[in-house]
C-alpha cells in the first residue's frame, strides 16, 4: 500500500511539473490556455500592477504585448499564429473586425461590472448592444503646446500649425486617420471624407506642413514634450493629460473647426484560447476601484461612472479631458470607411511620410 501511495504521489508530482513546464513554454510562445491569458493592448495603456493583481487573484498568468496603431493590431490578428485573448481596438476598427468576423460575442452575464459604465458610452453605433466590445478609455485628438516656449502664439485652429515660425517644431501622431484627418479638418472637410479630390487636396496641404514637422512619433512624444524638446504636439487627449502632469507649462486644446472623438474598447478576438479568462479580465478592469487606479496611472478619460466618483475633481472635473456632451457633439467619430478607403488613407499617409523625409 505504501509503495502504491509513493508511486501515486510521484505521478502527481511529475504531471504537475510537466504541466507547469508546458504552460511556461506556451506562455513564452504566446499561446494561451486556461492558465494563461494573452492581452494585446496599446503601449503605455495599463497599470501593470493591476495585471499582477489580476494574476494573483485568479491564478492566471498574463502574457502582455503592445501595439502602436489599430492597423498594426489588425495585421497581427489577421496573420494568425497568435492566441490573443483580449485586444483593445478603437471604434472604426471594431466595426471592421466585426465585418471580417474576427470577434467573439461577449457573454454579458459574465460581465456584471458593466453596470458601472456611463450609458453615454454604451450601445454606440459601431457596436450596438455592445455585443462584441466594452468601453476601456475614450478621448479626443488635439494640440498640446508649451506657451512658455511660444509666448506669442495661440492655437485655436488646425491652421495655426502652418505658422512659419514653427519650423521644425511640431510632433505628429504616427497614425493615418489622425494625420490625414488633420489635413481634411484644416480644409473644413469631414474626418470621414471619401471624396478623392478632397483627399488629394488634404495631402497637398499636409505636404506644405513638412518644414514645421520635427518628427512623426508614437509614445516618445511624452518624453520630448515633457523635456521641452518640442513646443507643439498633435496628441491623444490622455497622453496630453499625462505629459501635463510632468510639465505643468503645457496645455491642450481641441481645434475649433472640429476633431476626432474616439473610443477604445476591450474585445475578445477569434484568436482567443481562454474565453473564460478573457471575460474575467474584462470584468476585473471594469471594477470601479480597478478602473479608478488604472485611470490615475494612464491619465486617459474613463467611461466608468463609478470610478469617476472615486477620482479627484482635479482630474475628472477638467473639461479639456472630460468634455461634456454639448462639446463632444461637434466632434466626429471615425467611421469604418471600408477596405479600399482605409488603404487609400494609409497610402496617402505613406506618401506624406515620404515627402517629409
Ligand atoms: N498610449 C496609449 C495610446 C492609446 C490611444 N488610443 C487612441 C486611439 C484613437 N483612435
From TrEMBL:
Q: Where in the cell is it found?
A: Periplasm
Q: Which InterPro entries match?
A: SBP (IPR006059), Sperm_putr-bd (IPR001188)
So where does spermidine get bound?
92
Task: Please cite one Gene Ontology biological process associated with this protein.
Answer: polyamine transport
Q: Where does the UniProt entry say this protein principally localizes?
A: periplasm
Top-level taxonomic group: Bacteria
Which GO molecular-function terms appear in the entry?
A: polyamine binding
CDD domains for this protein: PBP2_PotD_PotF_like_2
Q: Which UniProt keywords apply?
A: Periplasm, Signal, Transport
One GO cellular component term = periplasmic space
Question: Sorted alphabetically, which Pfam families does this protein's record hold?
Answer: SBP_bac_8
Q: What is the protein name given in its UniProt record?
A: Spermidine/putrescine ABC transporter spermidine/putrescine-binding protein
- Organism of this sequence: Amphibacillus xylanus (strain ATCC 51415 / DSM 6626 / JCM 7361 / LMG 17667 / NBRC 15112 / Ep01)
Biological classification of the source: Bacteria, Bacillati, Bacillota, Bacilli, Bacillales
UniProt gene name:
potD
Amino acid at each position: 500500500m505504501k509503495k502504491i501511495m509513493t508511486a501515486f504521489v510521484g505521478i502527481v508530482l511529475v504531471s504537475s511539473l510537466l504541466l507547469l513546464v508546458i504552460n511556461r513554454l506556451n506562455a513564452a510562445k504566446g499561446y494561451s490556455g486556461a492558465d494563461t491569458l494573452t492581452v494585446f493592448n496599446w503601449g503605455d495603456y495599463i497599470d501593470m500592477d493591476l495585471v499582477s493583481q489580476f494574476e494573483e487573484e485568479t491564478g492566471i498568468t498574463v502574457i502582455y504585448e503592445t501595439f502602436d496603431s489599430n492597423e498594426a493590431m489588425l495585421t497581427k490578428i489577421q496573420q494568425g499564429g497568435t492566441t490573443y485573448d483580449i485586444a483593445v481596438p478603437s471604434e472604426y476598427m471594431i466595426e471592421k473586425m466585426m465585418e471580417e468576423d474576427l470577434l467573439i460575442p461577449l457573454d454579458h452575464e459574465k460581465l456584471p461590472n458593466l453596470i458601472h459604465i456611463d450609458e453615454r458610452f454604451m450601445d454606440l453605433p459601431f457596436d450596438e448592444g455592445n455585443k462584441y466590445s466594452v468601453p476601456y478609455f475614450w478621448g479626443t485628438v488635439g494640440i498640446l503646446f508649451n506657451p512658455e516656449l511660444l509666448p506669442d502664439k495661440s492655437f485655436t485652429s488646425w491652421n495655426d500649425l502652418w505658422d512659419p515660425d514653427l519650423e521644425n517644431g511640431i510632433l505628429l501622431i504616427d497614425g493615418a486617420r489622425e494625420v490625414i484627418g488633420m489635413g481634411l479638418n484644416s480644409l473644413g472637410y469631414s474626418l470621414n471624407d471619401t471624396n478623392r479630390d478632397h483627399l488629394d487636396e488634404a495631402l497637398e496641404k499636409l505636404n506644405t506642413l513638412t518644414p514645421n514637422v520635427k518628427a512623426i512619433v508614437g509614445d516618445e512624444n511624452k518624453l520630448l514634450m515633457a523635456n521641452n524638446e518640442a513646443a507643439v504636439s498633435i496628441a491623444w487627449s490622455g497622453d496630453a493629460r499625462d505629459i501635463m502632469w510632468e510639465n505643468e507649462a503645457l496645455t491642450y486644446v481641441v481645434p475649433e473647426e472640429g476633431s476626432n472623438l474616439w473610443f477604445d474598447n476591450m474585445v475578445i478576438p477569434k484568436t482567443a484560447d481562454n474565453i473564460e479568462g478573457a471575460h474575467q479580465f474584462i470584468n476585473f478592469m471594469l471594477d470601479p476601484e480597478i478602473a479608478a487606479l488604472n485611470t490615475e496611472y494612464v491619465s486617459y478619460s474613463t467611461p466608468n461612472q463609478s470610478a469617476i466618483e472615486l477620482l479627484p475633481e482635479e482630474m475628472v472635473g477638467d473639461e479639456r479631458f472630460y468634455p461634456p456632451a454639448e462639446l463632444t457633439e461637434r466632434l466626429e467619430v471615425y467611421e469604418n470607411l471600408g477596405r479600399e478607403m482605409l488603404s487609400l488613407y494609409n497610402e496617402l499617409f505613406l506618401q506624406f511620410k515620404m515627402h517629409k523625409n
